[in-house]
Amino acid sequence: MATSQTRKAVILSAALAVVMLLATAPCANAQTSETLLNDVAGEFQDVVYPLEDGGLQLRLDCLSLKETEARRDVLLVHGLTYSSHVFDVPYKDYSLARYLARHGFRVWRIDIAGYGRSERPDDGFVVTADYAAQNICAALTRICELMNVETVDLLGWSWGTITTGVAASRRPELIGRHVLYAPVFNGLGVQTIADDYYHSTWEHAAEDFQKDETGAIRLDIVEQSVVDAFCSNCWRYDGDDSPNGGRREVCRAESVVLLDLEKLSRPTLVVCGDKDPYMDMPQIRKSLDKTPQGSKLVVIPGAAHCAMIEKPFYHEFQQSVLDFLTAEEQSVKKDR
Fold first, then answer.
1. Domain spans of the chain, in order of start
2. Which of 36, 56, 60, 224 is buried deepest, with most CB atoms within 10 A?
3. Residue closest to 247 by CA, chosen among 192, 204, 168
4. How far apart are CA 317 and CA 310, in angstroms?
5. 147-162 in b/e burial notation, b at 16+ Cβ within 10 A?
6. Strand ranges for the chain from DSSP E
7. 174 has which bridge partners?
């Protein structure tokens, strides 16, 4: 946990950022292009598409460069507590979504039911990995229909590796290449989850940033402005709660398998940091023994759970994801 002084600084900075974000952000309407934060040059367009699954309206949007022909599609899937905004931190070039868009992707993001800007079920416990996988399959099907494509690349972060893993095992024909970022293979330990919705705090939003021995966020690893932007977006888009169905699933014995790599049939990238406290590193290093042909393992020394927004590591993370997703294109170029 951070020190009292650090906590107050984070909360004050984040609260001020929320005010600025809310003052400048437009309403999100279906099938409309949205103005993006930190896009002064008007480089991007963000289009929201209607998606219904299980009787609930889900947030599905597509980020791309304006007036540019995208060459492929990728769907990004968030983790356990916070929604798809985590892939678009509006500071410098930290946004994974914008990075991929600049490299020729239509970048799709979904908020699973109960998260972010999607409708919420009455019972948060129903939002399990199986439930989320159904949302993901609905999004994949919708994207293929809208873009007239056969497959979509897929990236999941943390709990999103479990949910995308289930989706990939159900509908492999819809998936091109699959990225498992900070995969959770097994239960994280038994814990009783009593409430169907988890109640978040500012401190929890910053929980996965690397800390020093006093509990303060290591600002040599994550910039203060990144902390502020990330935490502000957590409050802005997610409020103070999120479904607890997935949390109840992962808070089980470490012997419980949550992500079975042998059920995956598409080329898979496993990417994580070796300082990530949620990772079973011996199991991570053996993951290629269970993944399909054409798969790859990237372990980033010094990086932790938030590698994609950690200052010393985010460029390596971005490049690793891009290299894997475009591996087939690079092979074709070499063969010519």
1. 4-335
2. 60
3. 192
4. 9
5. eeeebbbbbbbbbbbb
6. 33-34, 44-53, 56-65, 72-77, 105-111, 152-157, 175-181, 197-199, 241-243, 268-273, 296-300
7. none
Neighbours of 249 (CB within 10 A): 22
Angstrom CA distances, 203 to 18, 61, 117, 264, 281, stand at 16, 28, 22, 35, 26
Residue that the structure tokens 């906590």 belong to: 7
Look up residue 13 and give its amino acid: S
pTM of the full structure: 0.88
Predicted pLDDT at 36: 59
Q: pLDDT value at position 173?
A: 98
Is there a contact between 223 and 313 (Cβ–Cβ < 8 Å)? no
Q: Are 59 and 118 in contact (CB under 8 A)?
A: yes
pLDDT tens digit string along 125-145? Answer: 999 999 999 999 999 999 999
Calpha distance 177→327 (Å, rounded): 10
- Backbone phi and psi for residue 73, each to the nearest 5 degrees, phi listed first: -120, 145
Which CATH number is 4-335's, of 3.90.25.10, 1.10.3720.10, 3.40.50.1820, 3.90.920.10?
Answer: 3.40.50.1820
Report the candidate in 131, 261, 241, 290 with the shortest Cα–Cα distance to residue 184: 261
Q: CA 137, CA 87: separation in Å to the nearest integer?
A: 20
Question: Of 6-15, 119-128, 196-205, 234-243, where does mean pLDDT reach its minimum?
Answer: 6-15
Q: Would you state the pLDDT for residue 236?
A: 94
Residue 34: band (very low, low, confident or very high) from pLDDT cuts 50, 70, 90: low
Q: How confident is the model at residue 67 (pLDDT cuts 50, 70, 90)?
A: confident
